[in-house]
Structures are given as structure tokens and as C-alpha cells.
Design goal:
Length: 746
Amino acid sequence: MSEKNKKIKEHEDIDLQEVYKDWCEFGATSILSIGKYEILFRSHNEYDASLNDIVEDKAIQYLNNGAVCTNEKLQYNLVYDEECGSILGCNFTMPSKHAWLGDVFSTLPYGIIKKNKTGLGATTLELNSKRNSIIVVPTRALAYEKAKNSKIPGTNKYKVLYCGGKLKDFNIPSLSEYLTDETITYKKLLVVADSLPRTLEFIGDANYKDFFIMIDEIDSYQYESHYRPNLEKVVDYYFKFPQGQRCMVSATIGNFSNPLIKDEPIINVNFTDIDARVITLQPSNNPIVTAIDKILQLRRDFPNDKVLVAFNLVTRGILPIIESLPEELKIECSVLCGDKSKPHVKDYLYEVENNNLPTQITFMSSTYFVGIDFSERYHLVTVMDATFPWTLLSTDKLQQIAGRCRHKDGLLSETIIYNTFLGTSNYINYEELGRDIINDATILIELSSLFDKAKQKYPKLIKTYNEIYLEDIVKSSGRNYLGSSNVKLVRNEDDKIKIAYFNIDNILIQVRLLHTTYSDTLNLYSELRAEGNKVNYLSFKNENTHILDEVNKRIAVQKEKTDKELIDAFILELRDKHTLSERKTLAQNKRNSYTNKVGVFLDHFIELQHYIPFEPLVSTLPLYDNQRQYRQFYNTVIFWALDNEHPIKKAWITSFIIGEKYTGAEIEEKVNAIWSGVLGFDKLSRKTAMLIAHEYFAVLKQTRARIGGRIPQRVYEVISLNTKGLPDEHVEYIGSDVNIQRKIRL
């Protein structure tokens, strides 16, 4: 150990000081245990050239319960907080740039493991460790591949169990069968985020102590949580495991806003030598068009080579690129993407087999930026468009994508195509911004807490409104900051509003990229150079062409058709369920696996199935699929679902009598008597009152009639009180004592 490492930090904490002094004294073995770091040392003899003698030194035997198995002394240093005298992290150096984590450890340490490089075999190490493990991986494809390759020769059993949805041509034993199989000594469960809750529910809280949980590629959660809300739940479960039986792993870990994650011990992997990448940067005013040009150039100059395009924008990015290529190149294309986007690229879906790119031109979205590796060489083209902030990538994520190539000779070439964000260049204090965003989220949590207290004290005031209220808080919590996309700040977990920390991380990542890395075309160049890469910076490409209108129209028509097919298929699944709760559960489980339009349909179905019978509802909902149309339809349903004894229903029925004729002034007065009088909304003008009447209260036929014996004038005859033709049958009524003011959406 170096004198630098042995130097004692003076601090008022006497107990800590004594622990540190004791550790510095050599003996047969010693333990350093400070805070959440535990290091067991063993006596180690080595040759000291300066003394020409064998001297005794210490070597790490266990690092945070991770058993060191290398014969070489593990080079390490501890990072201290000078003011508090605590350990901030432990760095250790890999014995060589080609070493695996399995060459250093026989079991992974607990805490956050920052690999700083892809392909170190962390998942493989945990699968081979002599303990029961639950390993959360980013994609089903990775889980499937690892599980499939664990088949026990001569049997139909697998050492590793894939826990998730059904997979074609893969016979998966049940979890109960696997856990009770005595021939498999150490149980290894591979799950994706969506499958973790039901897997852990089966295992039971009391048995968490019997498993070590590893979350792989934790940084990807920060990039994807805004459209995959179940990712946040993974961390909730993670912290239910004992501290010594959990770890998070990634090659590229940034800052976290979640205080629990920030408090985890950090193990940082260093390397004496890292291969520099050779990168070509192509700034452009239209990255999508430039990407098309680049693909055409690569296929022309290197007809036998494969191309991989990384772009986290499927229907508005990858599809326009493919559909703009010549027909002979379209048939060479494939797309690797998440479940939500798969239905829209079904003509180009292929599976990764034997770690090879499926076609000559392969596109992948962020789902495949981690976890899946390719053993062959190819030209990598990474595309980013600041118009869609979530497509922007930090330099460590760009490194992670490049690291998907595991060929010993590396990539054939790497090109990054991007544009910049035309925002302000003012200094941004990111710590302060993070605190401000968390404060904004906290306001909603406090509001929810006060609401719960008010409900207990004044139940009549807030009767039956709690569930809708919580969901409304979550839906309304979407915010954007300094050019970021709109991201929800809170989530509903077990009927409690909680901060969505990964979403906050996502906002901060977007803002930092928009206002630093991609605020000027040269910034990315400077950052990549500073990391030791060889960067070829091309002049700015000013594209004069755009994606053809006919291409965009063709994609839009196909998307509309696919959405309809998905909705129809979902309706068939719903029809097989026979209770409101069964249908709600199915809709909620499917919600995050569908595209936006289908997801919106599911949200609307869950909301209105309590009022409208199933068949009329599923046939009517697709007619109201944009926000304005649905808001009007929703309000109509709320009025329609009122119990006949409800004060508003009574006022409505007595105000608009079927067969009677009313002037515009009379309709204005009647509508306002309900709208601004009973409901307490702002008073309506004549024009708006007529629109509200047509929308919610009455089917009106314009005609002419004498009123009071005077000259015939324009009047409106009430034909019906059912403005949307809803059925006579109701599933449920809104009770006469319910205040619907807050149910109505303005």
C-alpha cells in the first residue's frame, strides 16, 4: 500500500479515526469498515526492488463482500471526503485492458459498480457465482439469449430461468418448478423490469435475504423512464434487499437525483490503457437526410460491409430513412427496437442470432443501445436530432453504443451525425436546477398529502374523488425545463404520490446536453477529443432537400392502419374478460407495451368503462382519439351518467324539454343557469353557450316559429337530451351527492 493510501485524515470523529489507525497497522489480516464500505485484507508478501528484499504488504481479499480471486495484487485507492472523513468511493484497476470482471472477482461486490467500459462480463460473473441471484436486464432479447444458452446437456432443463412473457419456440419451466428443482444448486432468475414485480411477489418479501439482486445497465433507466414508468419500481424493490445483497452495474453511470441511490457505495473500475476510437463527426441542419446520404455512400463504397444505424427515433426517424432508400436497399434493412415500436416496423423486424447483425443495414433504437453485443465488424452511424431532445446522447452513451461491437479489431468506421440546439448560452447551475425540479415535484406530494388529510377530516367534501385525483396529479405533473421534452415529475405507487427520480435525471440529462454538448457543433468534438479519441470533424452540411411528402404520407397511413389493428386486437382480448376489474387489470398491464395512440385508447377505456357498457364503449372510443374531441366526449359521458336525482340532472331535464322550442337568448340563459350557476364556472357568451348546449345538453334542430304572436324568428327545437347517442343502459351512475365540478374538464 502506498504512503498516500495509508495517510490518516485528521477528524473530530474519534471512533472513525481509531478504525482507520487500526487498519493501517499490519497484521495477518485486517478489516477496514467505514460507512458502507467493507474491505477485508490478507497478508501479502511481495518483492521490493528498491530494498532488494521480500516485504509484507496487504492485498484485498474481499471488497464489499466481492471475493477477489486474482493472483495478482489488486491495485486500488480510496476516495475520501476530506471534510467529513468518510469514504466517497473505491477505485480499483483491472489487471489488463482485455481482462474480465470474472478474472478479478468470483462474486460481484455490493453497491454501484461503474465499469467505465462495455464487455467486462458482469452479468456472466453473477450467473456463474455460487449464490442465488435475480438479475434485471434491459431487454427481453438479452434475457432470452442468456437463458437459452444455459441449457443443461441431455435434459430439457436450464440453469438460468427467464422470467417474463412467452417466447416463441422456447419452452420455459414455471418459477415454482425451477425453484424446487434440487438438481439446480444456485437459482439464477433473469428478468426485465416489467416482469420483476410478479417474480418478487411469487418469491415473497421474507425470501429476499436468500437472493442477491443485480440491476444491469442502470443508466439506461434514466434515458427510458419517461416512457417506461415501471423502471422506477425496479429501484423500489432493489432497496428492499439487504445492503450486502444488491448491486447496480453499468459501463456509463452519471449522476442520480434519488437520495437512496446517491447513498449507495461506489466501486469504480479503472484501466491502465483504453483503446481510443476513431470517430468522424458530421454536423448537419437535417440529420435524417444526412443519414440517408451516409447510408447510400457506405453501401456504394463498401458493398460487402454491414451498416448499423443507432437512432432513438423510430416512426419519425428510422422509418422515414428506410422509406427514402431505393427499393433494392429497403429489402436489406432491419430494425431492432422496443415493444412499443415493433408493430410499426413489422415489415423490418428480425431477431439477432449468433451475435450477428440480422441484415446488411440494421437500425436500432435505445432499447438495444445496451445489453446486446455483436461479434462482427460493421460501420456504425449514430444519428441525433436536437428537435427531439431524447435522441441526444452523452459521450459515455456514444461510447456504450460503439462498445456493442465485440470484434477484436473493432468497428470498421464510426460516424456521428447531429445538429445543435439554438437556445440560450447562459450559465446553468445544474445542482440548483435539480433542487428546483425536486421542489416542484414536492409541491404535488404535499398537495396529495393534504388531500388525504382533508378526506379523513371532511369525507363529504371529497367523497369518491380520491382515485381520479391521484391520477390527475400524475398526468398533470409533466413539465419541461430549458428546452427539454415534457416529462412527468411524479408517479402513483400504491396510491401514494412519489417523486419520479429517473424522470428528473432524464430532464437534467436533456438540459445538460442541449445547453452544453449540443449548444455548438464544436462542443461534441472537444469533449470526444478530451477523452482521448481521434476525431475527424467534417464541415457543417447544409441539406437543401427534405423527406418527400409522399414518404411521410405513406408512413402516416400505415401507422393509422397499424394502430387500428392493434386496437381491434386489444378489444378482442378485453372481450374475453367479464368484469370491470379484470378488464382494468388487462388494460393497465398492456398500457406500457403499446404505441401512443393505442395507449391513449387504453387510458380512455379504463376511465369510461365504469359508465358505458363494453360494446358501445369500444365501438365509440376510436371516434374521439384526439385530446379536444375526447375531452368533449368525456364531459358528455359525465353528464349522461348522472343519477336522475342529481341536482344538475334535474336542472338539465327541466330546462330542456323534448319538443319545446327556445330562442338563442333562452338557451343562453338555461345553459348558464347550469354552467355558471350550479357548477360555478365562468359565465358563457351567447355563442359559447350554444356550443355547450349542442355538445352536452340537447340535440337542437334549428327552425322558425312565432313566439308570443310576433313575427316568426329563429328558434331551436329540442329533439333529444342524448347528444352523442349513448345507450340507455348504464354500467354505473354518478350518485346524487357527488360534486362533479372537478370531474368536468375545461
